[in-house]
Fold:
Amino acid sequence: MKFKDKWLACVSFGEQTFRTKISDQTDKPFWNCERKLLLERNGPHVARISVFETNKLSKNNLIGYCEINLLDYLARDSDSDFETFDLLDPMSSDIVVGRISLSCNFEDPIETEKNFARRILSIVDYNEDGNLSFSEFSDLINAFGNNVAASKKEELFKAADKNGDDVVSMDELAALLALQQEKEPIMNYCPVCGEPFEVSDKLNTVIHLTLCFDEGTGNQVMTGGFLTEKQASYGWMFKLSEWAHFSSYDVGLNSGSSASHILVCDRKTKRLVEELIDAKIVLSMRAIYQSKIGLGLMDKGAKEILQTISERQGRQMNSVESAKDIPKFVEFFKDQINMAEVKYPLEHFKTFNEFFVRELKPGARPIAYMERDDVAVCAADSRLMAFKSVQDSLRFWIKGRKFSIQGLLGKEICSNAFVDGTMVIFRLAPQDYHRFHFPVSGTIEQFVNIPGCLYTVNPIAVNSKYCNVFTENKRVVSIISTSEFGKVAFVAIGATMVGSITFVKKEGDIVKKGDEFGYFSFGGSTVICVFEKDAIEIDDDLLANSGRSLETLVSVGMTLGVSKKKQAGARLPTLDSCVLGD
Structure:
């Protein structure tokens, strides 16, 4: 890689992102920065390192990235402290733009706790004998700032002094900090970052404190407090707008003025990513869908305007002239469109819509458990929300007026089994692969066209209490009859700029899960699958994220859930049941 400017690097791991200082070296930048991460068996295990060219005024330009599976790194056989990784082009993962050297070491959690206890001891161990007297122990408890703990210092000291020698050793202090925190917290908040401690938190409190108090090996500790690498890479202009409350970052359901950034959880890496959307579009959607005035305009003819705009835009995207917009579109979404997966090169596409409905290379979307029809799979590259019932969806996601399964499916198709059934929402953004696939195997019974509006399906509209996107938009409902899940309703919903929904299958066709079902033309769009009551057990991670009002970024073919008809002995393997090989 040829460097011509100053650079910074970000490390994203789960719901945390850290950034380095800006390197002063422009030819071969180095940072000498480090950060400790907690690697849990069922937690995230893929760390992403991204390199940005700096622009101090606004955002920085992503140049390259690499993803490291820390479990694989742990199992490697190498004597070298450093390992070099290829930096991949954000636009195409088969192009290498540079290389980066990293050092990664692993520390046992028990040893981490002991090291932290030693550091705590050194602070109040005034006579430097490696033990704490009651007066020294009292000073330590006072420093934690917990009045309850301070009033029970003598009781705590006796509990920590396991061998009754009237001093607390390093091992005894470590046990106190680890166990007492679970029973009756000594510390309610981290004195470094201010994060509240919860008894039910997966992150062990002592580990958390170790990370926050980390002094490292003399290298600079990376700056934390970011949710996504995009947030971490912003310059001071964004920070000013965030301080002034024009922009904000948060996980979960946002609506109204706070809906300025859409964060989703990447299922593959378990890290948070930010959905790219033009700021002007965000402002216009908030003005229309988050206010009575905006929706009032919809009732006074704006719906017809949206229809006209969508039809005109559809014609334009089918014109030869529209092809010139393809490179700009790919550049804008360069980190979210992987051209290495696309079946044909850019020059193959003669119109923008041809690119929009692009096909992928064979094998780009492997179908999970292809031989098992009792395992349902994700129907689209999308941001997914899954709910056991409509009531759950209304609590955690859909805020529209009068939403119901009957309103979604229509009276002709809706049955009582669907009314109380499980609902899965696949929201496609403009940058996504826009062909949708069958989530289950079976036979197509029927199609029903339901006319309607063309509202946007962006969460800003879905979370609006003033409109009902899913039951008012144009949509096509199909019923798939299966032996494993009963009947499954598959709803393809049009949206703003989506003038057509094309199906490649017809009534009576016998289909296999993963087969292509159809595609949306230009714009955002949504697929909703409704399963009959007690027909499917949705994967736990999808339900957990949805319960936090957090969309999960999924790909076609990933597991969605298992039929409850064959639940006994039919559960899918989890990381708990996997063993690292020699």
